[in-house]
DNA sequence: GGAATAGTGTCTTTGAGACAATATATC
DNA sequence: GATATATTGTCTCAAAGACACTATTCC
């Protein structure tokens, strides 16, 4: 198909990041909009793709700017492309196609210390208010992606810290899926999957009491086969 | 984040379609490029998104133009967004971000009868030559998507015709996955999944001999749980 | 009859899920 | 001791996989 490079229809291309973390609940990073449209509403962090950077690079740049994380800490974050949203009127000002990304990280004090992150907050996904643009739809898509990914990948470890107990990992599954899982069967499943977690040979006690728990770190496996499927 | 609508970085946005069908092998629809760059190379069908159409609409429009299918027959085709490819230099002429879609259809004589389809051909995915742009990567992504989708959805029926035998469906799985599957266990699995297929109460004989086979059509279910997983 | 396809039966093994039991920490 | 967490054990049931067997068609 031949075409004239000077007469193409002009679009703006942006990236939006749905960054998840697990504390007591499943939370995403949102920013408050300071101007119209949707002034005062919450929105996903994101911004324009620059002419000289790839879409993926733009996503990583925005992630770094909004979280204040730098090189080494960024490597602990998982980021993957989610989907592209290209309805004609999704932005009332102009034609914008947005490539959404899903991120998963563990909460750290360094987060939100960056310069661009002054207005960024973690919000419980079950307590979302009005959202700007089509960001509610993007978040719903991202939420389903994360829930599905926990079934057949080891990505839950990216929501845990550097090291974690099987109780921690169990809680991440329960919080993300919003259901209760039998801990005994969960433990067996995780330990039976080669490369999901590896022992650090250390023990850790919980402030709430209980026996000391073995501490693990993420293994080298990326996929779970057979998967760890959601009940029901 | 405030920005000036008149000073955004300009991009072209295109759609590319990876349309699969199963005949004796797994095949995709390709067009031969008539001009530079990559003149003479095979490329995915696709084109620009118009200013007044959504990205999804553009994908359906291109699909219709390239296959020559119209309203009713198009409904038998499954089309879904695959991923977006946005490397800086993926098109040597200008900055282009392409949203790729995956399609699945059964081969029909009406295909390739459209005006834009004169150069379109079905190519065995195992026999691909040099491809234009990053289309080899797009195809590889689409291929893995289709293979994975057969595991946990009923989409194999969109690669079969209006009605089909379990032998037909079995062959589709074998061709797409490139492996042999035990037919007896496959039959039981399909029939045990509510809504995967429904009987038409008709029988069909194969030209190669054998007992007459019961004819089924697609059921109403979209997901398989538990999934029909690839061996190994 | 021989080859090809359709369909059923059966046995083994694997794994998911329910749930009991025991051990060790904090308060 | 009460409570919370960690860890192991056991039993049942569902499903996957291997494979034998029968039936019906074309050549």
Give a topology summary.
The structure is a homodimer of 232-residue chains.
Chain A: E1 12-22, E2 26-32, E3 42-43, E4 46-48, H1 55-67, H2 71-74, E5 78-85, E6 96-104, E7 120-124, H3 135-152, H4 156-159, E8 163-165, H5 166-177, H6 183-192, E9 197-204, E10 213-218
Parallel strand pairs in A: 1-6
Antiparallel strand pairs in A: 1-2, 1-4, 2-3, 2-7, 5-6, 8-10, 9-10
Chain A binds a DNA duplex (27 and 27 nucleotides) through residues 165-167, 182-185, 187-189, 192, 205-214, 226, 229, 231.
Q: Give the overall silhouette of chain A.
A: elongated
The pair of chains with the biggest contact is:
A-B, 39 and 39 residues
Low-confidence stretches of chain A: none
- N→C terminal distance of chain A: 49 Å
User: Given the structure, what is the number of helices of chain A?
Assistant: 6
* Oligomeric state as shown: homodimer
Q: Strand pairing plus helix content of chain A: what structural class?
A: alpha+beta
Based on CA atoms alone, the radius of gyration of chain A comes out at 20 Å
- Mean pLDDT across residues of chain A: 92
Strand content of chain A: 25-35%
| Topology of chain A as a string of helices (H) and strands (E) | EEEEHHEEEHHEHHEE
Largest sheet of chain A, described in full? 7 strands, mixed
The overall strand count of chain A is 10
- Percent range of helical residues of chain A: 25-40%
Brief digest:
2 copies of one chain form a homodimer. Chain A is α+β, with helices and mostly antiparallel strands and 232 residues long.
